[in-house]
Protein 1
Amino acid sequence: MSARPRDLPLAEPPAELVLPDTAAAAAAAAGGVPLHRRLLRHSGVLAGGFLLLLMALVALFAPWLATRDPVAIDPANRNKRPGFERVVTDAQGREERIVHWMGTDSLGRDVYSRVVYGARISLVVGAAVAALAVAVGLAIGLVAGYLRWLDAIVMRIMDGLMAIPGILLALALVALWGAGLVTVILAIVVPEVPRVVRLVRSVVLQVREEPYVEAAVAVGTRLPALLWRHVLPNTVAPLIVQGTYIAASAILVEAILSFLGVGIPTDIPTWGNIMAEGRTLFRVFPHNILFPGLFLAVTVLAVNMLGDGLRDVLDPKLVRRI
């Protein structure tokens, strides 16, 4: 009697069941150039990263860079133009020369000090909104993209949220919850989550049809392990790029909300609050809007440049152009 051939073991995954790494694929497409070298070669990454790092240092060292208390009111020196100098004598008779590099606002507050401190709020809002939106959208998108019965329900909810303009939805949420830093962050996160969900879902729908995912299902891999080991790594690169765009959008929306008077309380120096304070006398004293607007534009430009550069470096289809 001939020996029966041994069946292939079904409990052991095939040797080919290895998740393709996006970064590795990009490195192979670029001729094996390491990721950090490709990042250093890209002009957009360098320029955007440098400007963003500069703004982060300004926000971090605001107490030392500011020349005056950003909330100190001086009615005797209202609406002074940039470069205005004055000499102050303290109680001990010592004279101090003060230069208002960016002038003063209608309450006599130093615009330069307020702009420097305003960088803190903008960067915190941008980073917090990007982190929360990516985390929540990733969790929802992974489950919705892989479970067909849940996909239709979740995506209809996301479509409903995306049908409402983001700024109007943020205004409604701020009016409902009250003004404040945490409220503004949450109000901006809600409109951004559907965009992340749609991005993650599209990646999951593509990855789930790959042979290595089907092989993992065939050998009995549980859903949490399947999503964590085989699906999640493919979403990292697009989520990094999407996170930068969300951060830039959040910085702009926070400034808009503050400019409209429904965002951060007016006693806290933010770029939106500074511009809102100076809009009534803009034609006579444009510096109250010019300088915070310039810092806002540079920050948003830096984040967008960094995002475009990361997209070029991390996308295997675009990496050959670098």
Protein 2
Amino acid sequence: MRVRFLEQAKADLLEHNQYYREEGGSALASKMLSRIKTPILALKDNPEIAQLYELAPGIRRLVVARGAFLVFYRVTASIEILHIRRAERIPVSAPELASLSAKSE
């Protein structure tokens, strides 16, 4: 199954990359992006490994990078990565995820 990063997820990755590059240089940025992307790309072999997100039907939440990030995605004909956010942030709401899903359609 194919993994697709939707627009918000791509923007999230760029933001996280920029943050880590500014904080610790390109080696840290590369290490952190790898910790985020490797488990996401592994979803192609087991797309339903993550639990359903209790606040948004049809959306799954994958914990990556030793618990530092949450990846929100849905499984359709492909695996659509909707949003990647720091775990310590306020929980993402169903309307926020719905708006991200609608933007991609």
